[in-house]
Amino acid sequence: MGNQSLPKINTMILCTAICGASVFLTACNSDNSGKLGNSGIGSNDALKVDALKVDENGYLRNRLGKEVVLRGVNFGGWMIQESWMCPVSGTDRQWANLDTINAMKNQGFTDAQIQELFDTYQDNWITADDFDFLKSRGVNSIRIPFWYRNFMSDESGTWINGDNGSAVETANPGFKRLDWAVTEAKKRGIYVILDMHGVPGGQSMDHSCGTLGKNEVYTDYTYEQITVDLWKAIAFRYKDEAAVAAYDLLNEPQNNGGYSGPNAWAPGGTRAVYETIRMYDILYRAVRSVDPFKICIMEGIWSMNLPDPKYVHKGSPDQNRRYSGKTTVWDNVMYSMHLYDSKLNDINKRVNELKKARNDWKVAIHVGEFNNGDNQQTNAYDLYNNNKFSWNMWTYKIAGANMGNWSLYQAANKAKADPRTDSFETIKQKWGETLLTFSSETNDINNGFSVMRGMEQYFSPAMNHTISDVITNSNQTGFPVDPVSE
What we know:
28% helix; TIM Barrel; alpha/beta
């Protein structure tokens, strides 16, 4: 819709359930898509990991028993910036989103000014036109990375505008942004995966979590509790929203990104695995205390170093990966891996790990991010699709760099904002309408963006790959399964 300011959620869509004072985004008749007809997601499209038949466990099904495979993109760089792919100065892996905020504060920008700049950026990075394009390609899922600073003004857990998202109308910019995205996706038959990309203190040493070289959520109880509070608030708000397919509890935990330090544990090492599973169990139980039903995603980095979800119990790092605060069974979970392997043998190894987890443990399987080099086009898509893996490629859009097949759209020559020296007006201009992917209300590429090499030859066929009696595409006949006439 062009350069739009963030709208309020339509009150015909947003309703209050008097059930633990839950807030949710379903249609007001609660059992269908209202006047959206065949284009929207209704309550019967809510997903669950199948547990009906022995030979079918580990697949996604909606409430009417129809099998669904999720395919789509990540909205990387939208709600949390990474300097290598976004129009902001900063050396890759030496500059994180928190550095941008701190640099603006050092210039004397107020909190209100900083919020205005990020609102401008996010208003233009993704618009309704982008959702229209993805719908036209049959995308049926979008993974949305976000971080705690979308909702909180500091690492102490202070809610922006004092608002934790528990009321129907919210003044918190993070919840407003997610509300808008869920609504835009829902009415186009697209599911959303909510991805916690960065927590206070960091869940990895890498810049992708918004901070650098910390990884402190595992050793600082205050950070742990703030992360718990944030996930409970998110689950409370979206628990009854069918278009929210899953909660991705932690993005790439223990990705040390080449950093060193006291918490830079090797990703597959004993301490890293112990702390990761302990944290997953804490967050899983926190979410389940609010939302008993939504799929929870746990990520294995960089291999399937997760436990049998039927047996997660208190233990120490040397007790065969059985860790948590107390005996727990993880139910309705999806295990995910990010596949950044370029060699076919390595890709096959990871695919086999995922298949084994599904076969042995009856968990759903997800490739949450991937770039497989030349093998992405020639082999990876077929491997994921033929094995009925759900997947979201990294990423939809890049500005300020030329990154080959890392995104569907990219504009290499975008001016980068320097938060250390650029004025408020200059940053606002660099993060304004020049970042729109398309001319307003069209799919006409604009502002120097170009199509990824191989999108038409590979991505589009991968999206259109069909499996008998399985929903794989938002444009398939009969999707959603509970349409309502006008």
